[in-house]
Amino acid sequence: MDRLSIILTLVTGAMITGGLVIIAFSFGYYGWGPIVAALVIGLVLAWPAAWLISRRIKRQDPAWDETHVEHVPSPIPQPGAPEV
What is the pTM for the complete model shown? Predict the structure, then answer.
């Protein structure tokens, strides 16, 4: 499990939803329907976007060792365990 992507999910969800609401308002769609649609799209796309951003951050970090991901014994990380 990628703890960085869990934290990034909150940020990416807010950015995607806010951007979609601004786009809807700029096209003249005012009301609850466009806001709810933007919220649903933001919730659906938040996790994949955060996962991709997390992978890119870790791929560009020269000190990060990606080979440790295969040696993780459990999908649930221990609180004191190193990041995978």
Answer: 0.72
